Amino acid sequence: MSVLDEFPIATPVKPPPRNKQARRRKALRNGASYAILFLFAAFYVGPLLILIFASMKSLPEFFADPTGLPESFELANFGDAWDLANFPGYLMNSLIYTVVATALFVIMSVFVAFPIARGYVRGAGALLTLYVVALFLPPALIPQFQLILNLGLFNTRQGYILLFLINPIGLIILVNYIKSIPRELDESAAMDGCGYVRFVWSILIPLIKPAIATVTVIHAIGIWNELILANVYLTNEDLYPITKGLIVFEGVYGSDWPKLAAAVLMLMLPMLVLFMFLQRYIISGLTSGAVKG
Amino acid sequence: MAAKTRNMFGGGKLARWLPWLMLLPGLGFYFLIGVGPSLATFIYSFTDATGIRGLPINWVGFDNFDEFLFQGARSRDNIDALKRTLIFMVLVTTIQFTVGLVMALLVNQKLRGRLIFRTLFFVPVILGVAVQGLMWKLFLRPGGGPMDSIFGWFGMESQFLNGENAFYWVIVVQIWANAGFTMVIFLAGMQTIPADLYEAAAVDGASGWNLFKNITWPQLTPAINTNLLLNIVGSLQAWMLFLVLTGYKNGTQVLGYVVYAEAFGGTGSGSFRQGYAAAASIVLFILVLMLGMSANAFVNRRERKYMS
Questions:
Q1: Domain of B152, in residue numbers
Q2: Is residue A236 within 8 angstroms of chain B, CB to CB?
């Protein structure tokens, strides 16, 4: 369940205000709450509004007034940024990396998580511990680089995708969810002559859809937003994902904020749409990584 | 954990090995690019490895650590970066914790539009550093940018990310980007507080601050502890907003950025000193481990105090 959805809230319940004074106090407290909320909200809406305003201004207009409302709804910057920033190319790259790596990761992980959750392989407990411990180890960045370099995968799509085939938190989420699926199901399926792979593929996977959705979105968001690994591993411009493309665009057109703002908005948009539809999976995924599993 | 459970799918030899066989790709990649390289960081920290393929790698003992911490002007910069990392941690942890708690308390009331506020505060978490950073670069633009205008009303001036307080502006953005996450964990904790606790207290005439002090705060213990640990460990390791907002320059860099810059030629010297950078990342790792473990011990004591 997502906490952003409606849920039974343990709001401090007070008896309905009995007299005028109590009602006034309540109104005052609500007023104060709204005042603080709107102050916070200004920090969240403000940068976004400024970004939208900037994306609709012409360059001279922006220099004359970087903050205020645009004079007209000019969408030319979006088209310009789309072409100049090689958006279609970068977008396609990001899409390839995200889809391929996420699909591979999720499929492989189900086959790791299932036998661990059930104890069908020896040392299942130790294996699970190995995934938990990894969250506390030093970052793998440097030896990983040496490995990719020596495999000859530096600056290749395959090498970049390879980096995203792991996600300990995702695996732990899957294991925990599979544990809630009754074991009798395995037994009766096996009794009916269902094979191992077919069981996992066509019976288990449909049953653990919520967990799969959660893991898929958090893994995909991570890849989509990745900037550092793209910086490290990709030097060929044709291979850049959109995040790196955006930073390069900033380097070249850094002072042309209207175009840059349009580009940032175009990168943001898919994420916002995704968030609107998959809120509960995103939040449960991100927080279940945080709370002890 | 039922470790002894028999896999009952099929009886043939292949069928018995099938779970292992299907598990191997996932586990293999995990060792190859996850745990393996993680552990190898320790080994690399004792070598003079570079980022150039084919160059021999030599064992240099503790030289990297010695150089990083004790040799010359560079090491003084490193110690400064270490101190800065700690300041970053303390400021981000305390402010983000407080802001997240206040947000959660506010949007946990029966107020119209609370769902919109919740969503609004959480959205930056999913945007990634490139978008977060560029948004704020525009917002903090000197010379007529929004924040500059606001400063102007009060007769103040700042160069923001280009000025001497750049480090603190990055802290502002870091908190902005992640406070929603802290809020959500607090909210999840508040959901688990039984409503009748409040009802009983209200009957006794308790209100406002007393309700918070005697019910909400102690009942929130698990969420408080989670947030403390996450904020401490997370802020010690955070550095990516610096990359987008300020770039690598003396006076702002934190340890995580030093590791990255030394390893991948971001210092401006163009060299890839990966053994040296690995040593730096071990120093950071030890720092995270020490502070994380003390925080954990502290948190466990609190939990015993409140939850028993």
A1: 64-307
A2: no
